[in-house]
Please model this.
Amino acid sequence: MTAEMTTPDVTGREAEDLANAGLSVDGAELREVLEHYYEKGWTDGLPVVPVTESYLQEFLARTPRDPDDVLFEVPHLNRALTVRLAAINAGLAGCLPAYFPVVVAAWDAIAQEPHPRRGIWQSTTGTAPLTVVNGPIREEIGLNSAGNVFGSGFRANATIGRAIRLALINVFGLVPHQLDQATQGTPAKYTACIAEWEEESPWEPLHVEQGLDASDSAVTAFVVRSVVHIEARHTSDPDQLARDFADTVARTGALIHEYTNALLVLTPEHAQVFASAGWSKDDVRRAVFGHAVRTRAELKAVGKDAISHNARWRLPADHPDAMPDTASGTDDPDHVHALGRPSSVQVMVAGANNAGVSAVVEVFGLAPERTPRERPCSVSRIERR
Amino acid sequence: MTGREMLLDPTGMDERTADGTLAPRPVTLRGLTIGLLDNTKPNATALLRAIEAQLRQRTEIGETRLYTKDYFGTPVKDELLTQIAAECDVVITAVGDCGSCSAATVADGILFEREGVPAVSIVSDSFFMSGRAMAKVQGFPGFEFLAAAHPVASLDDDGLRQRAETLTPDVLRVLGVEA
Model:
């Protein structure tokens, strides 16, 4: 861009600069457009891409779904997200039209999750949607599954996650300080979309575990709180490694309800520590479930040794609303599992193959069902046209 | 090039039918049946019972009936709404002390008003803006609800009694009855 781009008499050198830049714009008009979105409140705080009807049509052309199909609704807010609205917000987020089938599938998966439709994104807990992508579409649209997988730098990851956020703000009115009452939230509320590095995984990919074909492209939706790093560059012992994960899964600060859930995002190196010892994903799950235990005394020390009668939130045993937790009624009442069942742990592979650094993604799961969910996530196949 | 086009509205919002009409107010609570709707949050029942005790000190109210929502984060289900409207003359609901339940508690109050039952929704004052935003999406932006000093969940019996004492004059005012 040159400062003289609006000057009518362009010198030879300036003409060359313009040709090299390839583009000349009316900067004032561009900024006016961006400011219009800010004035309307149609943004997450970052600039958005203007969307008009002809650009919207490019998105709608990529999906077999009808523009008026409802992808996700929150009845108590009187709001529903159509394919058309999902596309407008994907465009605002900076998605290319080719990404749109992933966004549609992400909404389909979110719609299957129990908490979003019941208002979890109005909640103080401040969770965010995490979108995990599997299958051939990863390569086609350049989704990152390798180094810096939770970081910045990749348009598809950055904008697909943001497409979800912008629709939550714009369509559902989940505006911070208004219907979004997150106490602190999480950086993942800007965007959170990662791909699995299936080729580096010793096991079957996440979507195949959930019954889809390896040749399918798919989205798995999680509702997440923190992403916590696990530093373990020192060990090739699978049990040591499983204990390191379990310690983070069972940290008392994560315990809001009776149980928690986790997605382990293993780097190729850590996946190999398990796989070369002959461990399957289920072996990893069982080991982490078995080690993710707090003693009654540890829970008492932080005032989380009982649960409330109806909402089943952890609180001290001497609280007026306290009742004993499930473990209290077993023959081992002094050891309390932080996880409801082994399948409360999901396992995938992503991140550079350069260090023993993985992550525990803390996955939200409410208690009113009493019985923990079979899996703390929902999958949806990506449909393209 | 497509030429100049209008920017599209990404919200899908339209002007919803607004219904900001309150249910008819009773002149007094004397002899009336009062519904207490517990949204399952810690101390919700205790706060409602403490308010009941305050009301009994001031007026010869009729019986009270305690109901429990099955989930705090969404508005009361239709069946329970109909049941409470059939069995009670006024209803008090508490306690919206989180993001989703504050909004849901306000939505509950609006639903009761539209069923013809005067209602008092109680949220904690940290969540006043959430309740306001919910009243707006429900088409009743001026709906009045009460804000108790935050927190409620961690209060002991004395603390609950004090909250109830502070709230009760406003409960009576919202219900439109004499103290």
